[in-house]
Amino acid sequence: MSQIQTLVLDVDGVIVGEKNGYNSPYPHPDVMKKMKEIRKKGIPVILCTAKPHFAIEKIIKEANLTNPHVTSAGSVIIDPIAKKIISKSSISAIVAIDVINLYLKENIYLEVYSLDDYYIAKSQLSDITSAHSQILDKEPIIVDSLIDKIAKIEITKIMPIAKDEKEEDKAQKLFNNLGIDLSIYWGIHPIALPLQFGNITAKGFTKKRGVKDILSYLHLDFKNTLGVGDSLDDWQFIELCGFGATLANGKEELKKLISSKEKYYIGPSVDQNGILDILSYFKL
Q: Residues of the signal sequence (predicted)?
């Protein structure tokens, strides 16, 4: 019998891969079935992702993951099945204006998120729009002016999307030079390389904080938790867990960190449904 009482999973690169119709934009049916079985045993399966809740709601409902989840890079903790928002942070319009003006001026693609929608400027419609709307399985709301729009919405996240790692470096430096009190981290999606996805949230609202808040909310302990991710950013919550895992497609830096844990495992790639191998190894 497994010692694990809680499962925390990143989404992209862990349960969602790059094979459209196979494991993208949603997990393979075998993975969905396994998550449903684990949750039915009374073990919470917490999805922890930079995606907004509407992009993972189908996964949550079909696998009947009846517990809170970390979404929008930690800015929203939500239980879609119970229709309950556990917590939500926002970026003030005054601060958002500086970020938006900066990136638009430099012609870096930008999306702005509210709880249930996301927005782009008409002037930035491009192949990036098509690629990301496929990943999110939802089209953006196109506006003439993002600045005018943000006065009317509550902003949960701002997302610059860089064309490649070189533009990511530029976007990060621009953010650093602004000197604003927000958090940022970068991630990728297997089907959208070389695009780099930035996640700007209110200061301190991260995946790590989100997982900590959910475990506290559910009165669960990290020592009995398995954390699984594929990016270096995922280490922020995996390092707190008693058990850790990644996949063959995970970042090399993450693999080294995870292998330093006493109870860890590195499974096959996401496109081989490696999460199933990981769950089997930990007797889940």
A: none
**Share of residues in the chain with pLDDT > 70 (%):** 100
Q: Which DSSP symbol is given to 262?
A: S
* Torsion sign, CA atoms 102, 161, 201, 85: positive
Quick one: which of 59, 52, 54 has its CA closest to 74? 52
Nearest to 66, CA basis, from 179, 191, 214? 214
Say whether 132 sits in a helix, a strand or coil: helix
Domains and CATH numbers, the chain: 6-89+205-281 (3.40.50.1000), 93-202 (3.30.1240.10)
Helix (H) or strand (E) holding 67: none
Locate the DSSP E strands across 10-163: 45-47, 69-71, 76-79, 84-88, 109-113, 118-121, 141-143, 157-162
pTM over 0.70: yes
Mean pLDDT confidence for 243-259: 96
pLDDT, position 18 = 87
For residue 1, what pLDDT is reported?
Answer: 53
Question: Which pair of structure tokens corresponds to residue 124?
Answer: 């930035």
* Residue 177, both tokens: 């030079």
Look-up of token digits 């075998």:
30
